[in-house]
Amino acid sequence: MTDAMFLLPLPLILLGWVIGGGSPGPATLAISGTSMQMGRRSGLTVAAGIVVGSACWGITAGLGFSAIMMNNAWLFEIMRYVGAAYLMYLALKSLRSAWHGGVVEIPSVSGRKLFLKGLMLHLTNPKAVLGWGAIYAIALAPGADHASVWSLFAALICASSAVFFGYAILFSAAPIARAYTRAKRGFEAAFGFLFAFASFKILTTRLA
Predict the structure, then answer these.
(1) What is the pLDDT of residues 38-47, one digit of tens each?
(2) Taking the model in full, what pTM does it have?
(3) Which residues make Cβ contacts (< 8 Å) with residue 156, sequence separation at least 6?
(4) How many C-beta neighbours within 10 Å does residue 175 have?
């Protein structure tokens, strides 16, 4: 990759992408919560689903399909409502767990379900569509060829993988897992309110 491909230096593009991806949101909440409650392997599985979902939107935007979605508002609206409903489901699930309290038990959830949870989170998040479309528009120089698009995609998805898998490793560390065990109800209540807030934010997202 050469600097001529990009409007900004690649390290600066990646830094902005990492900060955006690592900021609190549905994906990071799901990874951190799963990692603390169920352990590193489960957290990494959710993270893998999120990375695949991100890659799907990155490829979609790279092929130009995101522009079609932006020009057909009803597609965006359907995805927005589905995503908000799914986040509200996660919010109610966390709040119910906080309300009942009790002894911390590690639930038995299949890897497939955990992967699909992460995938669903990112495929129904309209901000992911906007994010990928925006980064290509901001980062790529006018007239950039297909090689430039896919080189940038590869760099960005690697950065996303580092962020999301890093969250799983960090929040599954023994001290953090013990803190979760001691304050399970507080954590679950916090996750519930944050998921509900994320649902509200998605419902108020607008194309312009």
Answers:
(1) 889 999 999 9
(2) 0.77
(3) 13, 14, 17, 58, 135
(4) 7
Determine the number of helices (DSSP H) and then strands (DSSP E) in the chain. 10, 0
Q: Where are the domains of the chain?
A: 8-203
- What is the distance between the alpha carbons of residues 87 and 196, in angstroms, rounded to a whole number? 7
C-alpha closest to that of 79 among 118, 49, 46, 122: 122
Return d(Cα 11, Cα 153) in angstroms, integer.
14
Residue 144 near residue 64 (C-beta atoms within 8 A): no
| Beta carbons within 10 angstroms of residue 204's beta carbon | 9
Tokens encoding 179: 């803190």
The C-alpha torsion from 29 through 30 and 32 to 34, rounded to 10°, is 150
Residue 177 CB: number of other CB atoms within 10 A? Answer: 17
